Queue: 4 jobs
Job 1
Amino acid sequence: MKMMMEIQDISKQYKGKKILDNACLSIYAHQIIALVGKNGSGKSTLLKIIAGLIDTDNGAVIKHQQSLKIGYVPEITPSHILFTPEEYLFHMGRIRGMAPKQLQQKIDDLLEMFHLQESRNSRIIHFSKGMKQKVIIMQAMLENTDLLILDEPLSGLDPKAQSDLEETLSILKDNGLSIVLTCHETKLLQHLVDTVFVIQNNKIIQTDSFSSNHTQHNRLIFEIADPALLENLLPFLDIQQQNQVNSDHFEIVTVIKLEDTSQILEDLLRNHASIKQLMPINYQEEHFYRQF
Ligand SMILES: Nc1ncnc2c1ncn2[C@@H]1O[C@H](COP(=O)(O)OP(=O)(O)OP(=O)(O)O)[C@@H](O)[C@H]1O
């Protein structure tokens, strides 16, 4: 694998408070990296260092590719944009000095890649959070990008929007991009991320990659009219999220054992639940990341 960037023994302090201390990280081409860690552990700081937005106190950030193009998407998504995505992206591209014809072609390509063609003439202010997140990522990709840096891209998205964004990020990776993202909700990431780094005690620690998953547990997402109907199933369900979709429907995200799956599905269908997603999961990793 071709190395894109190396973070060598970097240290960073804010007002005398140590955030990163001799931290190291390598980023390879076609790789998706997740950075996890407790609040305030330094994830956003590291992303900004990778993006070249802030300096380090010590150490080196070495780019192994000439003119490495980096797109950075901060954690806060501006939500009151009155433009349509097409207008917004056009203005942002022009501000960066892109030629109108080339810019329009890029916007068309991005709208298609992010499945937003049908909403190209609607105003961003009326978009869902997931759609707004996509527009902000598209904005970071207007110029050809090698490395995309995303601060908490899945934060605040419902499970469906998370899966949708995951799928888009996976397509971006297939198209040759590398991605570094921070995440608290790593539980939905195991099909996407190649390598996970944990920031702990000011250091960056690499954990096992997700690729060695074994599949003894499944993630099951379903809708049901009344969670009270789950009473008999509760010992078999590890409920991770419960969202009220409307006045008479709840969406429930659970982890279940492989051997319990058929019985649980049968019971749910008997209670008129509708199954939205069933996929294998590595439960050990799920437990590991919960501590963050
Ligand atoms: N510009 C700054 N000036 C002073 N302190 C800062 C600055 N930016 C970040 N910090 C501090 O550095 C520490 C690390 O912040 P950072 O945002 O990198 O953490 P994080 O892991 O991304 O946190 P979270 O998960 O809450 O987003 C925090 O204690 C934060 O208050």
Job 2
Amino acid sequence: MIELKNVSKLYQAKEGNVLALKDIHLTVEAGDIYGIMGLSGAGKSTLIRCINLLEPPTTGEVLIEGVDLTKISAALLRQQRRNMGMIFQSYNLLTSRNVEENIAYPLELQKTKKEVIQDRVQNLLGLVGLEEKRNHYPAQLSGGQRQRVAIARALATNPKVLLSDEATSALDPITSRSILRLLREINQKLNITIVLITHQIEVIEEICNKVAVLKDGEIVERGMVSQVFKAPQHPYTNLLLGNKAFEKHTPIPLDFFRNLKTGGL
Ligand SMILES: Nc1ncnc2c1ncn2[C@@H]1O[C@H](COP(=O)(O)OP(=O)(O)OP(=O)(O)O)[C@@H](O)[C@H]1O
């Protein structure tokens, strides 16, 4: 349902040009929770923003259900974008609007009838578990609650796809897990395809069925999470997963501290 073909992105700036994406080919099927992982600067944000054309690719095609977004008019693009909600690390809520009003905002923009908006907002508040906070403003909410509002707002127009740009990176591990659980529920109950970018391996492990590994603007490895994580083929994937194994499971050898004291490392 989402297909990127030969997508490249060149940023041209006074300070110098950056080729942020190089000949990307990516297929996301309906129902996937597709994770794109890589270190800082790998091109993850650029890639996810190319999917809804927030960042127009320099070359290549972005096909959503067979429609190439790079070739349609601005009006048609606006219409296509309603099929794709997006959430961000920094939530991007409207600070002068309360929870209900934030969720209603995309529907107001498309001139939906008031009664329909009320019903939809009510359902979404239930879905994200924020009925009791409906009149609160973003400043009165925790990070996790803000992300729930952002998720409800992203789903307001009934999209088929949800794009998640490091949605849990600013949250503590427990809140992060509760947001990931919510995303999985949305994928399973509402049949919404999710594409997410993250630098956190545990996010991929927790909810994604597929993964692509991005390095310096190129996809170096992709596949089912179960396979890629069990038997990574590319040294860079190994490095990313190896680091995690070190953090999580490998006790730091005593020699490390001895050597540190004596400057022997
Ligand atoms: N508007 C821009 N103008 C010039 N260069 C840019 C622009 N946006 C991103 N870049 C460059 O493109 C490359 C990829 O950036 P991008 O933000 O996509 O990476 P990322 O993997 O999302 O990184 P992070 O995890 O740190 O957000 C980087 O070298 C970055 O400096």
Job 3
Amino acid sequence: MDTARVEELVRELLRELGEDPDREGLRQTPARVARSLTFLTSGHRGTIDEIVHQAVFAQPTHNMVIARDIELYSMCEHHILPFFGRAHVGYIARGRVLGISKLARLVDHFARRLQIQERLTEEVAAAVMESVGADGVGVVVEAQHLCMMMRGVEKQNSMMTTSAVLGCFRRSVATRTEFLTLVGRRHL
Ligand SMILES: Nc1nc2c(ncn2[C@@H]2O[C@H](COP(=O)(O)OP(=O)(O)OP(=O)(O)O)[C@@H](O)[C@H]2O)c(=O)[nH]1
Ligand SMILES: [Zn+2]
């Protein structure tokens, strides 16, 4: 990202909004926005390998592992407004397990982009499947979209739920049910 260019664009945007970008409160705003956007879109950079690094451990287990209530903040690509909530990620190991923090890091990686919730959910599922060679993966994301709350349809309490299931989570109703029970949902 060309930071100087982004700063200039933010200055122009402020002017278009009828603001004076040179008034005291706004003077540092273009630089702040550029820094903030760099962070909020950092998931466009880096690879899954770099995130997971060496944290895949041989372990002769074929059971379910779940990380529940991973908080997430992302931005909807339609309005560039935040959506935020929680992700629940589970997988069935196949002789290898992933360092548990890496599930949260993968969620952050795909959340820190311009996103839609459906794609975020699917990207996390695919990344877990690939990085640990799982037998199956389930991801549920529950989020509120500010574009639906502070503008537009102005609904304050609607929660969007999305799920992605791969491998044995897709094939086996029992596996999917075990996952949903453990993440505290009766059904999707
Ligand atoms: N499926 C999906 N839709 C989203 C997501 N984030 C925002 N949207 C929707 O994207 C749509 C964009 O619709 P448009 O009609 O093009 O835009 P708009 O006129 O601003 O729509 P309103 O939000 O209804 O005012 C809206 O229905 C949003 O609610 C998301 O993560 N997934
Ligand atoms: Zn939106």
Job 4
Amino acid sequence: MTDHPWLQTRSTSENRTGSYLSVQSVRKIYQTRNGDVHAVEHADFDIDEGDFVTLVGPSGCGKSTLMSMIGGLDTPSTGNILLNGKVIEAPHRDFGYVFQDATLLPWKTVMENVLFPIHTQKRDVKQYLPEAERLLKLTGLYDFRDKRPAELSGGMRQRVAICRGLINDPQLLMMDEPFSALDAITRDDMNLALARLWDEVRKTAIFITHSIREAVFLSDRVLVMTARPSQIICDIRVPYPRPRHAGIQEEPLFNEICAFIREKIHASHATHTPAA
Ligand SMILES: Nc1ncnc2c1ncn2[C@@H]1O[C@H](COP(=O)(O)OP(=O)(O)OP(=O)(O)O)[C@@H](O)[C@H]1O
């Protein structure tokens, strides 16, 4: 595939012992009353520290299942997931999560919501105040720190959720379709806000979206999954440096990468018959 220098391939003999996050031959089968559901057939990839990696693929292909297993919230049926060489076996206290619904506590202020993980982990909340203030400034929410969630827009609530996910300096931030409930204009703004935030925080992140353009704009790497039985069929290193500006979305290369991913997903739909 010399036509696509951004498409990555990995030799199976590669030494993976030094990998930051290593997903090794992972498969997940759910046993249900209606039979086995092969949620993830084969996932095998490594993630470097500091990379922003997005999973894209058709609905039901196992993206959230894979993320849950990485977070230790679920276990692989076969295979292993290792962080710094240690198998992830339980939910990680050092991981941050952001979901489609911001799930903020309505009776708490923005600041109290951001600091909530510190409160529940019984750490010294005062010590984390400067970091909460920094994150709120970076996301343009500092002036709203004393407001309650009901007084915020949907995009602002998601930004609060992202600050909350970052407050304890997580080793990994996982975001499962955080912007999918937002309107298109707010979503564009959120993409820019998240890209700007990433220029500052440079955390390792795993992100799930159905938007191919969002995936390419935000990510260092995009992993494309097929419909069930799902596998990762492409591994793309997005060839744009950071900081990223909105204008790259108009460039032919950006559109070429998006078209390539779209084509791969459509082709996988045509060749995979989803199980019940
Ligand atoms: N706890 C469970 N028990 C049984 N089946 C499950 C369970 N969790 C997920 N599944 C099934 O596994 C498959 C993958 O689900 P998953 O939510 O991981 O997909 P997804 O790619 O994140 O979907 P979407 O893009 O629609 O959010 C689906 O068929 C789903 O119904």
